[in-house]
Amino acid sequence: MVNVAFLAPLGTYTHQAALQQFPEDKHTTFTPVDSISKCFQELMTNKELDFAVVPLENSTNGQVVFTYDILRDLMNNSDTYQENEAVPMLEIVAEQYVSIDLCLIASKPLNLNSLTKETKLEIHSHPQVWGQAANYLKLLEQKVSALHKIDASSTSAAVRLCCEMEGEEQGGVISLAVGSSIAAKAHNGFVLDSRINDKKGNTTRFLILKRRNSQGPPLEARPFSPLANDQMVSILTFVVKQDSPGSLVDVLNVLKEHRINMCSITSRPYHFPKDDRIQLTPENEEGRWRKWQYIFFVEVTHDNRLDWAPVLKGIRSNSMRFCFWGTLHRNGRYYDIT
Ligand SMILES: O=C(O)C(=O)C[C@]1(C(=O)O)C=C[C@@H](O)C=C1
Fold first, then answer.
1. Residues 121-179: tens digit of each pLDDT
2. What is the domain extent for residue 141?
3. Ligand 1 within 6 A of 295 CB?
4. Fewer Cβ atoms within 10 Å of its own Cβ: the N or the C terminal residue of the chain?
5. Is 325 found in the same domain as 181?
6. 289 φ, ψ to 5°?
7. pLDDT for 242-251, tens place per residue?
8. What is the model's pLDDT at position 202?
9. Last residue of a domain, which of 193, 217, 245?
10. Residue 198 included in any domain
11. 155, 265: one domain
12. ipTM greater than 0.95
C-alpha cells in the first residue's frame, strides 16, 4: 500500500501531479492536506504517509516561495548534522511536470459580456496564480468597477469556496475563481473561460518527497516519465562563508572539477538558526545576525554512475552549511517545449 499526501482538496494541480506519479489503483491512497507546509509536516510526523507531493516552480512566474522556504527551514532546523552537512528528515525522490491551463470558474453560468462598469468582482485563487494570468485579469478589471483578488490555500479550495457561495455574495459582488477544469467539475462549477494563462505552455514543476531511510514502499517508475538515457538530477542547498571573496565560486568550482553540469541556481533570504548545531568561525559568528544573507539552491545533472563522496567532501570544506536533498530521474517532460 502507498499513501500519498497532496495539497487539498481534490482537483488541485498538486493532485494532478500526484496522479501522474502514482497509479490510481486499490494499492494507492491519496490523502488531501490543507496547505503546502502541512504536506511537509504530515509526512514527517504521520508514519502512515509514504510520500508527499509539493509544487516547486512555475515556468511563468518562477519559485513557489512557500516550498523553497520550507526546504531552507528544514535544513536549518535539522536534528541531524554530520559536521556542517544537515541531514533533514525528508529527501526528494522524483519530479513531475503539470500543464497549468487556468480557467475562470463560477458557481452558475454567466455571460462575461454582461459585465458592466456597475459590476464588482471578487476573484479567488492560490497566490501563485496571480502572476500566471496577470494580463487576463487586468483586461477583466477594465470591464468592471472593481476587481478584488482573494488568496486561497489552493486553486481547488478557491473553486469550492466560490461554488459554495452560489451567487449569494453581499452587495452585488460576483464571486469567481481561477483553477482547473477538473476542479470546476469536482465542485459543480461552470467554466466561463479557459486557457486564461498569459503564457501558452504554462507548466508547474512538482517534487515528490519521502522520509529518509524509511522502510516504506519503493517509488515505482511510471512508464514514459523518466528520460530514456537515465539522466539524473541532484538537488543541493548551501550557505557560503561570509565576506570571503570567491566563496560562491569556490563551491561551484567543486562541481566544475568533477565535470558536473549545474542546470539551475537560485537563492532565498537566509537567517542563521537561533540554536545553531554547528560551530561557526569567529568571522562568521560576527555576521550571524546580519540581514541580507542568502541560501543557494542548486540543481545538477549527471549520469547514474557519479560517485558523490568526493564531491560532497569538496562542498563540505567550501561551504558554511549544506544539505544534499537527493538524486532523482530527470522526468522526460522537462524537455517539453509546448
Ligand atoms: O493550488 C493548486 O492547485 C496547487 O496545486 C498549488 C499551485 C502552486 O502552488 O504553484 C500549483 C500549480 C499552480 O501553479 C498554482 C498553484
1. 999 999 999 999 999 999 999 999 999 999 999 999 999 999 998 766 667 799 999 99
2. 103-193
3. no
4. C
5. no
6. -100, 5
7. 888 999 999 9
8. 97
9. 193
10. no
11. no
12. yes
Angle between helices 65-76 and 36-45 (to 10 degrees): 40
Partner residues linked to 104 by β-bridges: 178, 193
Q: What is the pLDDT of residues 214-232, one digit of tens each?
A: 877 878 766 556 666 689 9
Number of domains in the chain: 2
Q: Which of 193, 212, 246 is the last residue of a domain?
A: 193
> What is the reported pLDDT for 274?
83
Same domain, 73 and 118: no
Residue matched to cell numbers 460576483: 174
17 CA closest ligand 1 atom index: 5
Cα 191 to Cα 181: distance, rounded to the nearest angstrom: 7
Q: Are residues 10 and 46 in the same domain?
A: yes
Smallest CA-to-CA distance from 94 within 251, 299, 326 is with 326
pTM over 0.90: yes
3-state secondary structure of 321: strand
Same domain, residue pair 92 and 114: no
Is the Cβ atom of 128 under 6 angstroms away from ligand 1?
A: yes
Q: Give yes or no for residue 13 CB within 6 A of ligand 1.
A: yes
Q: Which residues of the chain have pLDDT under 50?
A: none
One-letter amino acid at 246 equals G
